[in-house]
Amino acid sequence: MAKDLHQGLRVSQEILRPGCAEPQDDMLAVLRPSVLRISDVLLRVAKTLADGQECAAMKFTLFGLPKTGKTTLFNLLTGSQLETSKFAATEKSVHIGRCLVQDPRVRTLSEIFKPRKTIFAQIDYVDLGGLAFGDVKETELLPHLRNSDGLAHVVRAFEDDEMPVDVGLDPIRDLRRMDDELILADMVVVENRLDRLAKDLKKGKRPELVKEEEVVTRCRDVLSGGTPLRDVAFAEEEMRLIRGFMFLSQKPLLGIVNLGEKDTSRLGDHTGLFPPQWKDSTNVVICPVSAVIEEAISKLSEADAAEYIAAYGLTETALARLIRNSYSLLGLVSFFTVGEDEVRAWTVRKGINARGAAGAIHSDLERGFIRAEVVTYDDFMAAGSLSACRQNGTLRLEGKDYPVSDGEIIHFRSGV
Ligand SMILES: Nc1nc2c(ncn2[C@@H]2O[C@H](COP(=O)(O)OP(=O)(O)OP(=O)(O)O)[C@@H](O)[C@H]2O)c(=O)[nH]1
Ligand SMILES: [Mg+2]
Fold first, then answer.
1. pTM given for the model
2. Residue 264 in contact with ligand 1 by CB distance below 6 A
3. What is the distance between the alpha carbons of residues 358 and 348, in angstroms, rounded to a whole number?
4. Is 40 a member of any domain?
């Protein structure tokens, strides 16, 4: 137990390191459930403290009912080769893997600069064993859901006679029901916290606790009306008070609908797969895929794959779209640095200023920030070279408050 606890503390120390708001590897997976609960509390504290910092790789967790194709997709996303099976799993597995965001712009820049190294942005995906309805609020996998930046709910829409579904295939029903599960799990947290706050407030009305009670009560009212917290706009001050709870229903949600091979006409159009209740939600994206078709595409040459997806009227694979959606749902954008040594995509939060973006590369660059030389990817491609951009005025000098946009090529000038 002491050894496990030590590991739990190590995980928390890891996230407290500057520049990293998540554990770097699968340390969580090696902890026992009892220690995970302790770590969960530590992680909450760490998350709150780490607020505002950029992190190395964001994490999306694939979860859902058993046998929906989670591990099949995980393998494709992360290049893993885990076993998939039609038989019920006996234990609740957890796998963590890294996915390179194969941004075509990075490839093109790499072809132009021919650098020694090309580095793509990354997202981590976690694959959880199947959960039944009713399980979410008490599963031992809960910490993995909570510690995730975004959730990817995989629902089954493919027929398979060897894996019959008693209640019939209905992706919209499943998306909604699992959302209710997330709401229920958050309700448990909120009720517990309100009980605790009531006791503490009896001892003294500390202003911080009074404010917390207000916002947590608001959360309870929203949740008890069946609305996920992702649909609520919280003020920054309120977010500071509740961020540490890592509410499941507040996380961006990717609804991955795993279609049957005969149903691929729906690959390019998700309208018929969108639960009507979610129409006003900005933090949800429905992503139709067919895991078996993606598996087939992954074995083709690039040219054959392009022909194959064009036959479905698409311009990119469903997998590429899924990764792109994960990235944008997390509110992330990429800027690029280019040169003979390295072409690299850097991940930052949308809206970050130039000085903060410099900090994503190195804290020295942030401290000594003088100016950023910025050109958009499209302007660079139109001009053909950085010197041409300098001449035609598309390469601009920007100050520390300049808001960085997706796809900008930036060179930072620093005095340190
Ligand atoms: N026909 C068809 N079969 C699929 C598809 N996706 C997955 N499968 C099959 O469904 C079975 C289960 O797939 P997994 O990827 O192991 O499913 P899972 O959701 O990880 O299962 P658990 O982890 O046990 O919950 C495997 O036999 C897959 O080959 C699909 O798109 N179409
Ligand atoms: Mg699995």
1. 0.83
2. no
3. 10
4. yes
